Amino acid sequence: MIRSIKMVTLLQTLIAAEQGSFHKAGTLLGIPASTVSRRVRSLEAQLGVKLFDRHRHGIRPTAASNAFFKPIRRILDELNTVLINAKTIARGKTGALNIGLYVSPSSGHLRMAIREYKQAFPSVDVQYVEGERSQLMERLNAGSIDVAIVAGHFRSGMHDVVPLWSEKILVAMVATHPLAEKATLTWDDLRKEHILLGRDPGPELRDHLLSRLNASGDLPAIRHSHIGRDFVLSLLDIESDITLLYEADTGARHPGVIYREMADHDGPSLVPYFACWITSNDNPALQHFLDLLRQHKGPQHQPRRARAG
């Protein structure tokens, strides 16, 4: 039965009930009163229920129609809400955005970009997924995340990629470590050190370190553990090690741990950031986020061409 009843008939019947007159309903809708009356009679015939008592001054809902109109009004209100929500989702003002990260947003441009996006689109449900780069790429390909934010060397492959900002590479150590006396460190300073690296971006930072040392002379003792950055930082005073990390990871403070910048021959050692996503992803919330990320492409740190990972 539901397929044979037109939405316009239900709407005009409800308006007629609210106006108490086919004439008033027709005037409000901009159509002849006879059109409204004819559609109401058609609906009554389909339902087998008399919805109105007609009299010379207008119409009066019957007892049966009152039970009919109440749930119809509720359904139409819910449908209106659905349509409004659909429109806001299409404009990227609501909906969902899933961001994949293996670099912490504890400080720097990434944190600022996410904060600005949340302020601009508070009704978008933003979810975060942390994982190693390979895991993020798998999730991106499967459609379970909308965008991955990665740092270091990146080959685009099947993804769309936008270069973002670049940030400094830092060394973390306990305040009593001998290298703590230097405000800025060179890569040669690390040749005889014990370096503890965790999961991503640990492998990238290792490759970056070895490329800067050119594999000549003494090389540091590098130890890998399948642990996160916070865990690595918490071990530095126990293991007497140092670790490498990106500038974005320095927002979280650890007692007794300090940071020192790494320097190349011509200035701070920098790593570029990228956002990557699947070309066919038409999520409007993603497009707004990408637009905001592009605004953070600042000239403050220009990325180098050297491989970072």
Automatic annotation (TrEMBL):
Q: Which domain of life is it from?
A: Bacteria
The answer to keyword Transcription applying to this record is yes
Q: What PROSITE patterns does the record point to?
A: HTH_LYSR
For this UniProt entry, the molecular function terms from Gene Ontology, in alphabetical order, are: DNA binding; DNA-binding transcription factor activity
The alphabetized UniProt keywords are: DNA-binding, Transcription, Transcription regulation
UniProt GO cellular component terms: protein-DNA complex
Task: Give the matching InterPro entries.
Answer: LysR_HTH_N (IPR000847), LysR_subst-bd (IPR005119), WH-like_DNA-bd_sf (IPR036388), WH_DNA-bd_sf (IPR036390)
The Swiss-Prot or TrEMBL record describes its family as follows: Belongs to the LysR transcriptional regulatory family.
Tell me, in a sentence or two, what this protein's role is: NodD regulates the expression of the nodABCFE genes which encode other nodulation proteins. NodD is also a negative regulator of its own expression. Binds flavonoids as inducers.
Q: What is this protein called?
A: LysR family transcriptional regulator
